[in-house]
Design brief:
By secondary structure, this protein is of the alpha+beta class. The chain contains eleven helices and nine strands. The protein has two domains: 2-90; 109-336, 2-Layer Sandwich (BirA Bifunctional Protein, domain 2), CATH 3.30.930.10. The strands form two sheets. Strands 1-4-5-9-8-7-6 form a seven-stranded mixed β-sheet, sandwiched between helices. Strands 2-3 form a two-stranded antiparallel sheet. Helix 1 (2-18) runs parallel beside helix 4 and helix 2 (22-33) runs antiparallel to helix 4 (54-90). The longest helix is centred in the N-terminal third of the chain and has 37 residues, at 54-90. The radius of gyration is 41 Å and the shape is elongated. Its EC number is 6.1.1.20. It is found in: Cytoplasm. Residues 117-338 form the Aminoacyl-transfer RNA synthetases class-II family profile domain.
Length: 339
């Protein structure tokens, strides 16, 4: 039995040494150490060995197995090292080549403009609030002194879902909801997405963003409104910016005005950017209509307030001198990475 065991080990060692491929090595492992391998067959024939010799033969078989496994592992590591060296020679890497620069995103021009507007008004003590985009007709129109027969409520101008529910055309409903809470005084900024049935062109879109502000307190006058918007314009467009108020009509404010700022491109002298006038229109504003205050449960004899609204896209277009609003929505990386 000992001689037979030695002959098997010697034969296996010769084959391991002579093997030149990893697959051949695996075949040798199976032939000698597998379930039907030669060493395994010797273990199965232990029943024919005298009981006194079994421990000795068993130990010899285990030592032979350990020796073969060691040689097989050595040969396997040799093949792996050789393969790795060949691969390194074939796959050369030029470490002097520039690496691929990852594409890192950043804020959209609208987001940059909104953050700046919010920073200005929060610095003046305003709170930023939001409300639902799918709104009741009452909050979007009726509570803002816009009657049932008003042209703005035509289905050609407003996206109605049902007779009483629509996609809000302005963020003014947020102001009404805040007034209804009865927590006075109020100083809020209401940014958000709004919807109107407009054709898409360089200055219009059926979906855009609006920022509205509301102040309700005792003894609020039009002078407070003018001072607030003058400070806003200076912080947004530059310290030398001037404001001009033109009479206008809005159903929910009285008196109302359109606000122009002096052209920050030419300083008011007149240029292509301001179309030669020296002024640029930016927003609408006015004192909150007494009827709107009453409908929201606020006594107009004791409280007064002002409101204003500006399109976020308009701020972005002016601030970054963009000619076409559609560029803000096309997601062209060549355009967006400039900001």
């Amino acid at each position: 039995m000992k001689e037979k065991l030695k002959a098997i080990v010697d034969e296996a060692l010769v084959k391991i040494q002579a093997s030149e491929e990893l697959d051949k090595l695996n075949d040798i492992r199976v032939a000698f150490l597998g379930k039907k391998g030669e060493l395994t067959e010797i273990l199965k024939s232990m029943k024919d060995v005298a009981p006194a010799d079994r421990p000795v033969i068993g130990q010899l078989v285990n030592e032979a197995r350990a020796a073969l496994e060691e040689k097989l592992d050595e040969k396997k590591n040799y093949f792996a090292k050789k393969l790795r060296e060949e691969q390194i020679q074939k796959e050369t890497i030029d470490v002097t080549l520039p690496a691929k620069k990852p594409m890192v995103g950043h804020r959209h021009p609208n987001s940059i403009a909104l953050d700046e507007v919010e920073r200005i008004f929060v610095g003046m003590g305003y709170e930023v609030v939001e409300g639902p985009e799918v709104e009741y007709d009452y909050y979007n129109f009726e509570a803002l002194n816009i009657p049932a027969n008003h042209p703005a409520k035509d289905e050609q101008d407003t996206f109605y879902i049902t007779g009483d529910i629509l996609l809000r055309t302005q963020t003014s409903p947020v102001q009404v909801r805040e007034m209804e809470k009865g927590k006075l005084p109020i100083r809020i900024l209401a940014p958000g997405k709004v919807y109107r049935s407009d054709e898409v062109d360089a200055t219009h879109s059926p979906n855009f963003h609006q920022i509205e502000g509301l102040v309700i307190d005792k003894n609020i006058t039009f002078a407070d409104l003018k001072g607030t918007l003058a400070e806003f314009a200076k912080q947004l467009f530059g310290e030398n910016t001037k404001v001009k108020f033109r009479p206008h009509h809005f159903p929910f404010t009285e008196p109302s005005a359109e606000v122009d700022v002096s052209c920050f491109k030419c300083g008011g002298k007149g240029c292509r950017f301001c179309k030669g006038s020296g002024w640029i229109e930016i927003l609408g504003c006015g004192m909150v209509h007494p009827k709107v205050l009453k409908m929201s449960g606020i006594d107009p004899e004791e409280y007064s307030g002002f409101a204003f609204g500006v399109g976020l896209e308009r701020i972005a277009l002016l601030k970054y001198e963009i000619d076409d609003m559609r560029l803000l929505y096309e997601n062209d990386v060549r355009f967006l990475k400039q900001f």
